[in-house]
């Protein structure tokens, strides 16, 4: 409708251009405020156009203002949501302590032979699961067998000598008292012979020289001296035989010495049997064979490393900052994430806290007594035991990086 009116006005104006010009010139000349009907219509037309323009400008201004407020509203909503999320996250994690300085740990024992020899049987492969008592390596047993046979022969000799000493001891308990009795009897006979010889000598000296001869006197004198010598000899034999208890004790001591030799021979035989058994190297417990450095036919020395056995009993060694230990206690629940297996979530608990920082038990502890001191946050190892979530068919190698989160009270 507005467009039609404008067109009509333009038509009227174009149809009377001279009149308008005349009125304008006369109006200017006379200085009066006379207005023709056509000029009134034009004025109304101008006002209407200006109103429409103002209305359009207002609409455009509103359009300009509208997009300016909407981003602010969106930004405010986003900030509020972020604050809410941050508060929820803080509330949910305020009792949780996390560290990425954590690794899997377990028992790993080095397998070494106790005897030297050539490897005649290699019964395991790399990373193989073995059971306790399973044969791992067999070393040539011939040297150990020869040593066992030699020790067994020495034991037989020692046992034979013991039996001989025992017989000698039993014989001494009978023989030495009999020898003492015999010596005492000989002493008694010697004393009797001495008495007879003394009596004969005195009788020969006491008779009339005409009734005896010098030869008889000399014979009696000789018999007297012989009887005295026999008595002294008998007394000496009695003194020797009188040591019967000492002689028996000596025989008994010999038996004890032979018994010690037998025990020594038995120990040597047992050692030889042990060395023979050491030819078969067996697994000390269930685990996985790792770090194998032995081949079939290798000459191994006693104590040299063959490989390691890693136990499937795995735990977590987490190094927490000293400032994180205030509320941590044994028994706190732990959720464990594994870098190698992102989809696996393990559950466990805090087993114990090491009584010392990692730097305190390092090979070269820090020396802070001299020089400028720079305070560094210390870390304390914490042992975490895995309770659930670990697949027995998917064991965790030692040294894997894990991310434990401890829930404290």
UniProtKB/TrEMBL annotation:
Keywords: Coiled coil, Membrane, Transmembrane, Transmembrane helix. The keyword Transmembrane applies. Residues 179-246 form the Multidrug resistance protein MdtA-like alpha-helical hairpin domain. Residues 1-67 are annotated as: Disordered. Residues 51-60 have a biased composition (Acidic residues). Residues 14-29 have a biased composition (Polar residues). Residues 315-400 form the p-hydroxybenzoic acid efflux pump subunit AaeA-like beta-barrel domain. Residues 178-275 form a coiled coil. The chain crosses the membrane at residues 72-92. Residues 108-310 form the Multidrug resistance protein MdtA-like barrel-sandwich hybrid domain. It holds the Pfam family BSH_RND. InterPro entries: AaeA-lik-b-barrel, MdtA-like_BSH, MdtA-like_HH, MFP. It is a single-pass membrane protein. Belongs to the membrane fusion protein (MFP) (TC 8.A.1) family. PANTHER family: MEMBRANE FUSION SUBUNIT OF EMRAB-TOLC MULTIDRUG EFFLUX PUMP, TRANSPORT PROTEIN COMB. This is Membrane fusion component of a tripartite multidrug resistance system. It comes from Ewingella americana (strain ATCC 33852 / DSM 4580 / CCUG 14506 / JCM 5911 / LMG 7869 / NCTC 12157 / CDC 1468-78).
